């Protein structure tokens, strides 16, 4: 059974939409399309966790992605 | 691999210059209105937070000092500080203090009170700042607003630096009143 890859998951209700995560993402997988919360493109996210460390509100976690 | 730097990744230089200019001539404080109107206009017209996400020089300054220079513990911000109660509460408090500042400016304009050549830090501590004022061509109210506005900018910088050291570099972004306000505008506009 293949190991499920972990992806960045944003707690959108607590996100402040500052965009710090956009700047550190090496895959340009994060956007803040409507200025309310950030969204992760699961097809691009490789689960590196840089955004998790950067997020000033600490509302990003690495979780098993949906397959 | 970091992406190639864009022109707007250097806007922290303007934020730093702004703070320094205020040490020499307080009237430069008026330029700070740009940091109020640009994000509001972008959020109202475009329905996004491009200002926070790309252009905010204040945030860049914190990520430079806290991130690149390492002056940050990089700990999680306490849950209460990222709660909506605190964020909206701080926004209201900030508004209230802003109106007090506008009222003081009005009193000087109307001649009811004298110009106070001081910068008030954290809404409490009055710092002498008279060297940065050599008179104005217009009403002393123009200078009173400059002193008041610079007080707002310096206070928020000091708070931002404190939470940068204690928590993460851009912890200020969590409770930044402009950020909270533009997020609310995006949330409730139809775009």
Report on this model:
- The complex is a heterodimer of chains A (67) and B (191).
- Chain A is an alpha+beta fold and 67 residues long.
- Chain A has a single domain (6-64), classed as Alpha-Beta Plaits.
- Chain A contains 2 helices and 4 strands; from the N terminus they run E-H-E-E-H-E.
- Chain A has helices at residues 20-24, 50-54, and strands at 6-10, 30-31, 39-40, 60-64.
- A two-stranded antiparallel ribbon of chain A has the order 1-4.
- In chain A, strand 2 and strand 3 form a beta hairpin.
- Chain A is globular.
- The mean pLDDT of chain A is 92.
- Chain B has one domain (7-188).
- In chain B, helix 2 packs parallel to helix 8 and helix 5 (84-110) packs across helix 8 (177-188).
- The model of chain B has no long low-confidence stretch (mean pLDDT 94).
- Chain B starts with 11 loop residues before the first helix and ends with a helix.
- Chain B has 191 residues and is mainly alpha-helical.
- Chain B has helices at residues 12-24, 34-46, 50-55, 57-68, 84-110, 140-166, 172-175, 177-188, and strands at 118-121, 125-128.
- Chain B has 8 helices and 2 strands.
- In chain B, 34% of the residues are buried.
- Classes of the chains: A alpha+beta (67), B mainly alpha (191).
- The interface between A and B is medium-sized, with 22 and 35 residues.
């Amino acid at each position: 059974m293949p190991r499920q890859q972990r992806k960045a998951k944003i707690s959108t209700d607590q996100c402040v939409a500052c965009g710090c995560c956009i700047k550190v993402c090496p895959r340009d997988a994060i956007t803040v399309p409507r200025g309310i919360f950030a969204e992760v493109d699961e097809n691009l996210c490789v689960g590196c966790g840089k955004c998790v460390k950067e997020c000033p509100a600490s509302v990003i976690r690495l979780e098993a992605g949906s397959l | 691999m970091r992406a190639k730097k864009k022109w707007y990744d250097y806007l922290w230089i303007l934020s730093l210059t702004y703070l320094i200019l205020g040490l020499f001539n307080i009237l430069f404080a008026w330029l700070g209105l740009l940091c109020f109107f640009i994000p509001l206009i972008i959020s109202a017209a475009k329905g996004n937070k491009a200002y926070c996400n790309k252009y905010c020089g204040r945030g860049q300054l914190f990520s430079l000092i806290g991130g690149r220079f390492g002056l940050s513990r990089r700990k999680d911000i306490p849950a209460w500080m990222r709660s909506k109660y605190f964020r909206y509460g701080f926004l209201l408090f900030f508004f209230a203090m802003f109106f007090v500042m506008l009222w003081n400016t009005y009193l000087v304009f109307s001649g009811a009170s004298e110009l106070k050549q001081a910068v008030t830090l954290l809404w409490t501590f009055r710092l002498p700042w008279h060297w940065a004022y050599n008179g104005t061509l217009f009403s002393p109210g123009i200078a009173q607003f400059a002193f008041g506005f610079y007080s707002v900018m310096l206070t928020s910088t000091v708070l931002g630096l404190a939470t940068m050291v204690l928590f993460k570099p851009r912890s200020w972004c969590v409770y930044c009143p402009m950020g909270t306000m533009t997020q609310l505008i995006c949330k409730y506009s139809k775009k």
